[in-house]
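Aim 2, interim progress: modelling of the UD2-bound target.
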Amino acid sequence: MHVLVTGGAGFIGSHSVAALLADGHTVRVLDNLHSGQAENVPPEAELILADITDQVAVEAAIQGCDAALHLAALVSVPQSLKQPIETFGVNTTGTAYLLEAARRMGCRRVVLASTCAVYGDIPGMKAEVAPLHPLVPYSASKLMAEELLRCYARSYALQTICLRYFNVYGPRQRADSPYSGVLARWCAAVRVGQPCRVFGDGEQTRDFVSVHDVARANLRAITSAAIESGAVYNVASGQALSLNTILATLRELVGPQMTREYAPARSGDILHSCGDSTRLQALGWHPEIELATGLAELVEI
Ligand code: UD2
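Predicted structure of the complex, ligand included:
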């Protein structure tokens, strides 16, 4: 297949590009390098430097592609509270441009990177049928993007699939911004002898899923004939771990030089998040990497 990966120079994108290439597909990347890096893109893939909100560029990029994996997005919860319009512009309008380009150019399938943040803070394990309760502009922007995919699946001959990732971590996740993911920030802090900063009391839980597992889920969503168009699938480990528990694991890995400091909780923060990925597992995908293994890989880098 010929596959377009938007955001393919980024964290999840570059791992997904590698997985697609290894499976024998031809890959084109569209990325504005806002948070991605050109050196993340394997030389076998074509890199187009453009913004997802550049309608003309998106249409040109998708030409000749059988499928698109749509990862280009602003992914930070706190950033979305400060910059809601930018978040809606990139995450929702950008998705509209991609879908329309896919329809016009005869691309057959679009896979969206959505998020468990659409479930909000309602307690309990989240299956795809759980009530939706987006709390912040980021989650609303992704839920609207999902609605656009469902609309295109119903209205046109386009297969669309939404993957709701839980907390993704792994190599190449940026650590250099206040908006970066927590495990990337902590591993970076450990490397330079700084304390790991915990927002809140550290008892909030997250379902951390390795980027390697996510890349395999993306590959499956792009290539599987059994996957249901118009549907949504959780991509989760199924295990909720508190930040304090993860810090204890990190300390076991790196030793007593790891220190921590507590700071006030972030506004918009969900307390507990854990996903049920039974639907995706029925298609043969399983989370394979335990958090301790994934953390060990991260601290070695
Ligand atoms: C992550 C994703 C988001 C979305 C969501 C779904 C990132 C950057 N964001 O948001 O796109 O998919 O998951 O749930 O990947 N924290 C600290 N110290 C730090 C940074 C964070 O204690 O230095 C806390 C933070 O307050 C939160 C938890 O760690 O309770 C996770 O924060 P995050 O920014 O890694 O991810 P989250 O869940 O806000």
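Residues 75-77, 115-117, 165, 167, 180-182, 185, 197-199, 204, 206, 243, 266, 269, 273 surround UD2 (CB under 6 Å). The chain has two domains: 2-119+126-166+209-235, 169-207+238-300.
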